[in-house]
Write a structure and sequence with these properties.
Layout lengths: L7 E14 L4 E3 L4 E2 L3 E18 L6 E4 L2 E2 L2 H18 L4 E9 L8 H16 L6 H11 L11 E5 L10 E6 L7 E6 L9 H11 L3 H21 L2 H20 L10 H15 L4 E4 L6 E5 L4 H9 L6 E5 L6 E3 L7
Parallel strand pairs: 5-7
Antiparallel strand pairs: 1-4, 1-14, 2-3, 4-7, 4-8, 5-6, 8-9, 10-12, 10-13, 11-12
Helix pairs in contact: 2-3, 5-6
The structure holds adenosine-5'-diphosphate, ligand DP6 and cobalt (II) ion.
Length: 338
């Protein structure tokens, strides 16, 4: 309560996720409907905490990211997103959004996933909607496709759906975070913002890359194989499919016009080191999202050995050891800043 008026304020925390089967390409850009289904694992180490407060005194939305007023592009994206929530809730109020990314922003660590999952949860709660997780996943999807998967913990599938209105395009939990212990070493080689955002990169690929059809022809098969690996808790199969699927996604960007790629030389060095580790009989596999940083999948009992070898690469800045993490949660909204 503030001066007897109910405050429309809420805080949510959401974790990032790394795709084992990538979402790459949209069939509808405004509703964010994907060309293919995808599957990810939510990570315990990286997350976003976002507070949203709707206020009738505001004349526009304000967005603070990591304590600073965000730039025009990021603010406009948040504001467009809030417009959809206002429309649904039939409350025409602007908001102050304060978000802290405990993950590098726009560097291929999936900040848009944790960012929009946290924003979806905080904004819908603040405006008075009490959504079922499936509805929340659909709202998160409207902010960033990968965000719909971060509503849930563990291994999560985003079912692409077939309907034009997007009502059957949402994430579903496949395995709880404790049900298949794996390690994901997030190998940081660069933290600068990417030149080609995921959104622009996948659009250019869909529109111009002759390799994109090859992606579409095989991705659903990769997905069903990966789900089979999860059922069997077969780590070798999981790693092989995830690595293959990642390379295939990145290959499509080379065929785009103009061509582009997210890798740096350090990316290749880490990939080669992983292959080398594997040749020593230690199971390790790599995957990369839209950025130069590499996520290395291994079994928890091997994580220290894998860490030690990757740490020796001079271009590796830092390695974060991650494990499957939880879904979105609400945090108490501090009285101090009410
Ligand atoms: P990433 O690899 O980090 O997901 P993307 O290209 O998918 O990179 O998305 C980056 C964009 O996501 C940023 O430019 C910004 O607009 C948005 N974003 C990142 N973090 C947040 C946040 N905490 N709240 C709202 N939007 C965010
Ligand atoms: C390569 O979800 O960031 O990380 O929906 O346009 O916001 P928008 O894109 P985003 O794309 C993620 C692409 C990817 C693969 C994945 O996470 O599935
Ligand atoms: Co993203």
């Amino acid at each position: 309560m503030k001066n007897g008026v109910k405050t429309l304020k809420a805080t949510a925390k959401a974790h990032t996720n790394i795709a084992l089967i990538k979402y790459w390409g949209k069939r509808d850009e405004s509703l964010i409907l994907p060309m293919n289904s995808s599957l990810s694992v939510t990570l315990d180490t990286f997350y976003t905490v976002t507070t949203v407060e709707f206020d009738e005194k505001l004349t526009e939305d304000v967005f603070f990211l990591n304590g600073e007023k965000a730039d025009h592009t990021d603010t406009e994206r948040v504001s467009n997103y809030l417009r959809a929530i206002r429309k649904f809730a039939k409350k025409h109020l602007f908001a102050v959004v304060r978000s802290e990314n405990h993950v590098p922003t726009a560097a291929g660590f999936a900040s848009s996933a944790s960012g929009y999952a946290a924003l979806a949860a905080a904004a819908t709660k603040a405006i008075g909607l009490n959504l079922h997780p499936q509805e929340l996943s659909q709202f998160a999807r409207l902010g960033s496709g990968s965000a719909c998967r971060s509503i849930y913990g563990g291994f999560v599938e985003w079912q692409k759906g077939v309907k034009e209105d997007g009502s059957d395009s949402f994430a579903v939990p496949i395995l709880h975070e404790d049900d298949f212990p794996i390690a994901v070493l997030s190998v940081m080689v660069a933290t600068n913002r990417k030149k080609v955002l995921s959104r622009a990169g996948m659009k250019r690929t869909v529109e111009t890359s002759p390799f994109y059809q090859g992606w579409l022809d095989t991705v659903e098969h990769d997905l069903s194989e990966l789900k089979h690996a999860l059922e069997l808790r077969d780590f070798t199969l999981l790693g092989e499919i995830a690595e293959r699927n990642a390379l295939k996604m990145h290959a499509t960007t080379l065929g785009a016009n103009p061509p582009f790629y997210y890798w740096q030389s350090a990316t290749m060095e880490v990939m080669e080191a992983v292959q080398n580790i594997r040749s020593q009989g230690i199971e390790a596999y790599f995957t990369m999202d839209a950025g130069p940083n590499v996520k290395v999948l291994c079994l928890p009992e091997d994580e220290q050995k894998v860490y030690d070898q990757l740490k020796q690469i001079p271009s590796v800045k830092k390695i974060f050891t991650c494990h499957p993490g939880p879904g979105v949660t609400f945090l108490p909204t501090g009285e101090a800043d009410v």
